[in-house]
Design goal:
three-stranded parallel beta sheet, 2 domains, 1 helix, six-stranded parallel beta barrel, mainly beta, 268 residues
Length: 268
């Protein structure tokens, strides 16, 4: 876990946090702090029935130390998606501009406009899939091979429903052969995925962006992620590295449902 500068020092600020426990093994380094309630950190390995334990058998270190939280943090649900399309849509030369009318092709570049999409599949090692600025509602997205780029102007917000998926199909899947938002000078705040379900979000490959999936399991088995994530459970293995982008503190936000944060009454 690193900061965007990849400083392997306590000042790297590659902080992680958990409302529950953390299980660190192998050569796992956190170049920042770990924030968690840590209620029973030294008694047993963390699990669903012991959610606040810290099981650290790694040869690495938590450079910024452990920070006990006074209470668990709460996160708002992403906006609901009503009646998402559930048709399978593979983007290729036969479907672009025909069965997918919001797709436009020039050579091996496929440009998608903001619109509702079903189960979207992107593949082709030489293909570029350009997402125009705006908000997309997608039932699922499977990025197999090629690269996803953000059109000039950004940002792109992808809202994923994950409705009625077959067994083994993830709402969000990024293959190790896929690069996401790596064109030019990559800006993680230009791309976000939000998902309100409990399915698995599989992220491999080279990606600059943000995932907001407070109820999901995020599995990262390879590659590098530059940006930030909010999830229910997280697993990083196979040499995967996560780099937090400090710029997101100032230049990124998601539009979530409104809620009352304070009330007052005055008598005149």
């Amino acid at each position: 876990m690193y900061a965007v500068t990849k400083n392997q020092t306590p000042s790297g600020h590659g902080d992680i946090g958990a409302n529950g426990g953390a299980n660190l093994s192998g050569n796992f380094n956190v170049w920042g702090s770990l924030s968690t309630p840590l209620a029973d950190q030294f008694t047993h390995a963390c699990s669903d029935i012991a959610p606040n334990a810290l099981n650290d058998t790694s040869t690495g270190d938590i450079q910024g130390g452990k920070i006990p939280l006074p209470e668990a943090l709460t996160f708002d649900d992403p906006p609901p998606i009503s009646n998402p399309p559930v048709t399978n849509q593979a983007v290729n030369s036969s479907t672009c501009g025909t069965t997918i009318p919001t797709c436009h092709r020039v050579g091996t570049t496929y440009t998608l406009d903001p619109a509702p999409y079903g189960n979207l599949t992107l593949f082709g090692s030489g293909n570029t899939f350009m997402f125009s600025t705006g908000t997309y509602t997608i039932n699922s997205i499977n990025m197999i091979s090629g690269k996803l780029q953000i059109a000039p102007g950004g940002p792109v917000r992808i809202q994923v429903a994950g409705a009625s998926l077959q067994a083994g199909v993830n709402p969000i899947s990024i293959n190790a052969n896929f690069n996401v938002n790596t064109n030019g000078v990559p800006v993680p705040s230009n791309l976000s995925f939000s998902y309100n379900g409990t399915g698995t979000v599989q992220v491999n490959g080279e990606t600059y962006g943000v995932v907001y999936a407070p109820h999901a399991f995020v599995n990262m088995a390879a590659g590098n992620w530059y940006g930030a994530m909010v999830m229910n459970k997280f697993s990083a293995s196979g040499g995967a590295s996560f780099h937090y982008d400090l710029a997101l503190l100032d230049n990124f936000c998601l539009t979530l449902p409104w809620r009352v944060v304070s009330m007052s009454r005055n008598k005149y």
